[in-house]
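Lecture notes, part 5. Sequence design as translation. It can be helpful to think of inverse folding as translation between two languages: the language of shapes and the language of residues. The source text, in structure tokens, appears below.
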């Protein structure tokens, strides 16, 4: 076994604690010994009766907390945490025992540990994801409204253009006039020849 590689591994996490207990979830937090280079963590989770075991591993993160989901109500669990370094994983931390709450205790648990800093960043990220979804939905709805408004305006302009063409076709031609007949026709009836007489009186 390469002893140099073992020495390069980080030390095990310390101060392991479990908070925000719920019937189906819990939050695990820990501390990293000073001076250790850590790029992730690993958590071993199992029910105390041995019927279920889960292993969680995350890298490229400096988080020192993790939410455990899909837990069983009123059940005992055992967890251990490891730090992930550049050259491998640390030894496992000491075992931590905890029990999930009953559903009847859910309201009481929501009143406890509200200001626990261990999951402040995790809860904030969940709220941010919800906010981003709302922003995207709002933008999509605005674009849809703009498209609908544009289509309505286009239909109105198209209808007005069609109506104007129809009016031009049905309008009587004012430039046409009744033909004049110079010899005994209509013009002759309108304009009769007038005769003039001049009387000269000599004194």
């Amino acid at each position: 076994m390469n002893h140099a590689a073992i020495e390069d591994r980080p030390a095990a996490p310390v101060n392991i604690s479990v908070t925000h207990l719920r019937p189906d979830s819990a939050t695990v937090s820990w501390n990293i010994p000073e001076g250790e280079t850590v790029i992730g963590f690993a958590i071993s989770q199992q029910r105390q009766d041995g019927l279920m075991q889960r292993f969680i591993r995350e890298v490229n993160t400096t988080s020192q907390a993790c939410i455990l989901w899909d837990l069983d109500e009123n059940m005992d669990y055992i967890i251990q945490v490891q730090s992930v370094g550049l050259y491998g994983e640390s030894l496992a931390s000491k075992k931590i025992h905890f029990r999930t709450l009953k559903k009847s205790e859910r309201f009481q648990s929501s009143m406890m540990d509200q200001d626990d800093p261990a999951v402040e960043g995790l809860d904030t990220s969940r709220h941010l994801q919800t906010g981003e979804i709302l922003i995207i939905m709002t933008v999509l709805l605005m674009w849809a409204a703009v498209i609908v408004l544009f289509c309505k305006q286009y239909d109105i302009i198209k209808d007005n253009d069609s109506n104007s063409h129809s009016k031009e076709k049905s309008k009587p031609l004012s430039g046409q006039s009744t033909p004049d007949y110079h010899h005994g026709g209509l013009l002759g009836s309108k304009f009769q020849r007038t005769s003039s007489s001049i009387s000269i009186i000599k004194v």
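The translated text above is only one of many valid answers, since several sequences can fold into similar shapes. Confidence is low (pLDDT under 50) at residues 184-192, 194-203.
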